[in-house]
Amino acid sequence: MIVRDMRPEDFPDLRANYYECYDERDAGLPIGIVLFRERPSEEAETAWFEGVRRSFDAGNLVSVVAESDGHVVGTCSVSRVGPNPDSEVGHVGGLGILVRRDHRGKGVGSALLEGALERCRGKFEVVQLAVFIDNEGAQRLYRRFGFQEIGVYPRAIKRGDRYIDERLMVRVL
Ligand SMILES: CC(C)(COP(=O)(O)OP(=O)(O)OC[C@H]1O[C@@H](n2cnc3c(N)ncnc32)[C@H](O)[C@@H]1OP(=O)(O)O)[C@@H](O)C(=O)NCCC(=O)NCCS
């Protein structure tokens, strides 16, 4: 498994990995990613990825993938909270991470976090994230990487008719 910068040709794998999250949710598994009510169309995903590329080209995004056997099995991105570095929140990045279900618990998430945080240096000064309150494995991982809890956002997520609180965490680089 290697961790490297995201490339345009990663899109089909990224889309497939994201769609798998909907399968997990539909199977009643506690997938800790914020999703839409319905799985977005392939066109919507293509438009999303174009936005990702624009953000990367503008210097507002750090994005790494974990590749195993020629496929992307995980990704971690940190995107600038403000519109550009001149904004008063331009030094803050928001982190998201996803590892394919069949590759979790093997160190992929740790390797992705390490690669992403390394690339954040010089670009962001603070990294923030929100994690589902019941996602204890992810919280352990973030604490190991120096993230500190700053509070709980009540009812941040509404999945079906169930509300889920989020824990907000921050790491000052
Ligand atoms: C949260 C997530 C990114 C973590 O990724 P991961 O690849 O499972 O993380 P790691 O394997 O590096 O670490 C997780 C655990 O596996 C253990 N582990 C690390 N290397 C390992 C290995 N080689 N073999 C077995 N276990 C290992 C770690 O010690 C850690 O244990 P802990 O839970 O007791 O702390 C992943 O589970 C995921 O994508 N979940 C679904 C989406 C999600 O919740 N995203 C977070 C949104 S905030």
Structure overview:
The mean pLDDT is 96. The chain has a 7-stranded mixed beta sheet with strand order 1-2-3-4-5-7-6, sandwiched between helices. The chain has one domain (2-172): Gcn5-related N-acetyltransferase (GNAT) (Aminopeptidase, 3-Layer(aba) Sandwich), CATH 3.40.630.30. A hairpin with a 2-residue loop joins β2 and β3 (71-80). The chain is of the alpha+beta class. It is built from 4 helices and 7 strands. The protein has helices at residues 11-26, 42-57, 108-120, 136-144, and strands spanning 2-5, 61-68, 71-80, 92-99, 126-132, 148-159, 162-172. The radius of gyration is 16 Å and the shape is globular. The structure holds coenzyme A (COA). The site of coenzyme A has 20 residues, from β4, α3, β5 and α4.
The total of beta strands comes to 7
- CATH-defined topology: Aminopeptidase
Helix content range: 25-40%
Largest sheet: 7 strands, mixed
Helix-strand pattern: EHHEEEHEHEE
Number of individual domains:
1
What keyword list fits this structure?
alpha+beta; globular; seven-stranded mixed sheet; 31% helix; binds coenzyme A; Aminopeptidase; single chain; 173 residues
Topology:
Layout (H helix, E strand, L loop, with lengths): L1 E4 L5 H16 L15 H16 L3 E8 L2 E10 L11 E8 L8 H13 L5 E7 L3 H9 L3 E12 L2 E11 L1
Parallel strand pairs: 4-5
Antiparallel strand pairs: 1-2, 2-3, 3-4, 5-7, 6-7
Bound molecules: coenzyme A.
The site of coenzyme A has 20 residues, from strand 4, helix 3, strand 5 and helix 4.
